[in-house]
Amino acid sequence: MSERAILYGAYADFNARNIDAVISRMHPEVQWANGMEGGHVHGKDEVEGYWTRQFTTLNPHVEPVSIAPDEHGNWVVEVHQVVYDHEGNLLLDTTVYHTYQFRDGLIVRMDITASESGKN
């Protein structure tokens, strides 16, 4: 499976809350941006715990608009991000950029930036 296909599948599985399927696409040493508290969570178990906490208060939907490689061999995903609370109140409707690195055919790092160039 291509890296682009892995990313499209990961977004579809995340939005369906099929977290096991998303995590199966990750390297055991994954570093995942913590969009709620800052920094990164490390390893598959921490990613799962982070999402479990997130889903208790938020209902995020992330739709990839475009996926393209950058000049460093990473993948940059333009994402339309819409977040509701569990009462249905809109909290966020914005565009962000997720930058991915792969190792051994698996996602090993994800960063969040406000711009395509990776600068906030």
TrEMBL record:
<protein>
    <submittedName>
        <fullName>Nuclear transport factor 2 family protein</fullName>
    </submittedName>
</protein>
<feature type="domain" description="SnoaL-like">
    <location>
        <begin position="11"/>
        <end position="110"/>
    </location>
</feature>
<dbReference type="InterPro" id="IPR037401">
    <property type="entry name" value="SnoaL-like"/>
</dbReference>
<dbReference type="Pfam" id="PF12680">
    <property type="entry name" value="SnoaL_2"/>
</dbReference>
<dbReference type="InterPro" id="IPR032710">
    <property type="entry name" value="NTF2-like_dom_sf"/>
</dbReference>
